[in-house]
Amino acid sequence: MENAFAPISEACVKALSDKTYDKRKVAALEIEKMVTDFKMKKNMTQIKRIIDVLSRDFVRSNDANKKKGGLIALAATSIALGKDTEKFIEDIVNPIMNCLIDNDNRVRFFASESLYNVVKVARGAVLPFFPSVFNALSRLVTDPDQTIKNGSEILDRLLKDIVIESSQTFDLDAFIPLVRERIMVKSSFARQFIISWISVLNAVPEINMVVFLPEILHGLFQILEDPLPEIQRMCESLLAQFLKIIKLDPSAADIPTMTNVLIVQAQSSNPLIQFYAITWIKEFVQLSGGEILCFASGIFTAILPCLAFESDAKKNIKDCANAVNLHLLELISNGEDKQKNLSYLDLNSVMEVLRQYLVHSPVPTKIAVLKWVHHLFTEVHDEMSEHANKLFPVLLRDCLSDSSDEVVLQAIVVLAEIVNSATVKGNDFDQTQYRQFLVELLNLFSENNTFLEKRGTLIIRQLCRLLNAEYIYRTFAEILLEERINLKIASTMVRTLNMILLTTSDLFDLRNMLHDIRNEKSASLFECLYKCWAHCPVSTLSLCLLAQCYQHVSEIVTLFADIEITVDFLVEIDKMVQLIESPIFASLRLALISHSNDNADAQHLSRALYGILMLLPQTEAFHLLNNRLKCVPNYWSQPNKISSKSTNESQCNIKFDELFTYFKYVQDLHHQKRVEKRKKNQF
Fold this sequence. Notes:
By secondary structure, the protein is an all-alpha fold.
């Protein structure tokens, strides 16, 4: 009967199928000798028949021993063929590849060993099968059997050497999808395998891996979260290499596509991923210039929360995010390229992100956002005007109510800039934007009296620094007079405004203006404030002292005898006495000894202060004022011959009689309100 395994002898077939390795090895050597002989005789038909028999009857057999024998024999065949292996490469490699996924550990081991020997002989001829070989290797490196892992590492190194040798013909387009498919795996061994391949190819001068980086960048960043420090270091080193190459030749990199990847990675909960992503963004901002502003909204989403990091572990992330923020600010501020840079900025998406971070964000983030909003209003106020209406509610309701003074002050800076931007467009200073803003602010104070008491001074003082103080005070007074404001809120607001007026250095010019009511503009402001200040008798008294209306002050003090003296009233008087000793009222103290106006002002002022002294209980304020008045000439012993034409009031056009009548009217309203409240409390 004809031998079905011809030209392989039956004895050789039996030995190849034996369970012992030594017998299989001897049989493989016999086949190697046969193939060598056929090669010398150039009998390729017989060689092809040997390969087919080994593949069909051994490697594809269900018998594990036959598989092992066949695998050894195929490797021996390749060794015998040498360079001629290329002619039979497909017939040799494919059966071996099938055994790499066998359930038997030993079969997989012999398959990897066999493949190594074939590849070692075939060299570049195996590259057409590279995807299949790479796929098999990626599984072997994660094999639970350590001997197989060790064998795969040897095969891996060999294959890398061959690829480097054939770098000019290596098909990168086929390789990258293989990497992309496997780069998201969680196995540390598989990750190490992928990183090593990318690193090797990236080191080859003829291969430009940066072109393909956008496809694998996301996966590389995910590898940074690997639990093994060694894998992390490998990935960090690879990312550093890529970034160095990009910095040398930015035009070779697809920065826009990679920026989108980085924005996502920069929001990772893993600090290492976050740090490297923001580091790359920082470099891209510097490399791309204004073009990076296309991604401003995404970058803001990534970096703004990082500005609030406080722990030492995240300090590097915070510093890097700060650097990105500053670089972006410079791009908008750069005078030379400003207009070009701004053309890349999608203001609508940027403002949407900034508004979101103004609410429920940590203080440093809010501060950064507010500075950005202010910067944009400064640089492109025309384009920003359409965003003012959406910003106003957030700035008023959220930012001004923030627990941080720094946030409140910065919010006022933005509000002031918005108002000023609107004012610049008009010829007349009296802009509705001012009034609308102050009405909203007053409504906010009205809704929350505690907010007014705790933050009112801070807010109004900052507004006066940034805007026209005279107009702010005039408008507040007009609103309080025209709007139906709760009397208690009105009196509290007046006390706040009055204390700011008397104590803030930034209002020096406004105080000087009120000193001279002979001036028509000053007189108009005084009358406006007086009618509003009438809600608080002591504030009215302070205003008149500031305006040097000493005769009227004396009349008001006399009226105090008919006004209900409450604890709040006495506290206000006490504060006013303290202020009389401050530098702001230096002119008042000098007026006590002045001979101007025929001593009229001095006498009226002296009598008014003595009247206040008589109202005070004998507290520290009483003794303070009493000591001051002891230094004043005794006007009481002089004849009461004060000419009404000698006083400051007589030299201006203010109708003090009408103001006095209005003051008494407002005080009656407050008295009625207190009476009604007491009656309600009785029931």
